[in-house]
Specification:
287 residues; mainly beta; 1 helix; disordered N terminus
C-alpha cells in the first residue's frame, strides 16, 4: 500500500496527473463547474471560449456579453501550494480539492465595476475588469415621480349627460438598454367621473305660447302668457330624460317712451307716451 501511495505522489509531483472530464457534464445546484468550464444556459458545463452558449451570471441569472475567459486545462494538485499559479489572467490563486486532486481557481472579483446597467467581468486577453452590459429592460437610475393628474377628460362630447372619462398624468420610466439607463415618457391614465346627475339638459324653451298682449299703446308690461309645452329635461344615469308640462311664460318689458299716443289736434298739440302713460304733450303742426 505504501509503495502505491509513493507512485501516485510521484506522478502528481512530476506533473503527469492531468484529469479530464466527460462532455456534457451537468452544473451542480449552485452553478459550479470543473476548472476550465463554465455553467451555461443549457445547465451543462462547457469549455470556456467559443462554445456558442450564453454565459449566465450565477448570482443574477443575467447574460454577460463581455469576452469570456480562454480555455484552460485542469491543474492537478495534492496541496494548496500546487494551486498558486492561475491558469489564466481572469483567475486568482486557488486551493486544492482533495477529493478530486484538482485545483479550484476562483474568478477575479470584478464586482467594483457593477452598476445599474452593467456587470463587472474579466477580459480574458488582458485580465482587466470591464463593464459588460446587463439587466436589459430592468429599472435603473433614480426614480422619477409622476406628475399630477389633470382634469377629468375624454368625456363623450356628444352627450351632455356623460359623466365618465379618464384622468391622465405624465410619467417617466428608466430602464437599462444596451448598457445605458434610458428614460422613456409615457401617459398614465385612470378612470374618473364628473357630476351630471339631475343637471339641466336639452332644450328648455317653451313652445305653443300665445303672443304677449300689452293692451294700451303706452303699456310697457304684459301678463304672462300660457304655453302648451315647457320642457324640464334633466340628466339621469348619463341620459337626458325629457319631461314636459303646460306652463306660462313671462313677457318681456318694453319701452314706449316717445311713442305717439294722441294725434295732433286742432290746438296743435300731440301727446306722447312717458313712463307707460300717455302724458307728454308737445306742439305739432302750424300754430
Amino acid at each position: 500500500m505504501l509503495s502505491r501511495l509513493v507512485v501516485v505522489f510521484a506522478l502528481v509531483a512530476t506533473g503527469c496527473y492531468s484529469p479530464t472530464f466527460k462532455n456534457d457534464i451537468a452544473c451542480d445546484p449552485a452553478g459550479a463547474c470543473p476548472p476550465g468550464t463554465t455553467c451555461a444556459t443549457d445547465g451543462k458545463c462547457h469549455a470556456q471560449g467559443g462554445h456558442g452558449v450564453d454565459i449566465i451570471d450565477a448570482s443574477t441569472g443575467l447574460d454577460i456579453d463581455a469576452p469570456i475567459a480562454i480555455d484552460a486545462a485542469p491543474v492537478g494538485c495534492t496541496a494548496n501550494a500546487d494551486c498558486q499559479t492561475p491558469p489564466d489572467l481572469c483567475s486568482i490563486a486557488g486551493t486544492c480539492d482533495g477529493s478530486r486532486h484538482v485545483c479550484v481557481f476562483p474568478p477575479k472579483d470584478c464586482s467594483a465595476s457593477n452598476d445599474d446597467c452593467h456587470l463587472g467581468t474579466c477580459e480574458a486577453a488582458t485580465g482587466t475588469c470591464i463593464k459588460a452590459a446587463a439587466h436589459g429592460g430592468q429599472a435603473c437610475g433614480t426614480m422619477i415621480p409622476c406628475g399630477s393628474f389633470g382634469a377629468c377628460g375624454e368625456i363623450d362630447p356628444t352627450n351632455e349627460c356623460a359623466s365618465h372619462g379618464k384622468v391622465a398624468r405624465t410619467c417617466t420610466s428608466q430602464t437599462c438598454q444596451a448598457g445605458s439607463c434610458v428614460a422613456t415618457t409615457y401617459t398614465d391614465k385612470q378612470d374618473c367621473s364628473v357630476p351630471t346627475e339631475n343637471h339641466a339638459c336639452g332644450s328648455r324653451v317653451p313652445t305653443g305660447c300665445t303672443d304677449c298682449n300689452y293692451g294700451l299703446i303706452c303699456n310697457e308690461t304684459a301678463p304672462p302668457q300660457p304655453c302648451t309645452s315647457c320642457p324640464t329635461s334633466v340628466c339621469m344615469n348619463d341620459t337626458c330624460v325629457v319631461s314636459s308640462t303646460s306652463c306660462t311664460q313671462a313677457c318681456p318689458n318694453i319701452n314706449t317712451d316717445g311713442t305717439s299716443c294722441k294725434p295732433c289736434d286742432v290746438g296743435f298739440t300731440e301727446w306722447l307716451c312717458s313712463n307707460g302713460t300717455c302724458s307728454q304733450p308737445v306742439s305739432c303742426g302750424n300754430q
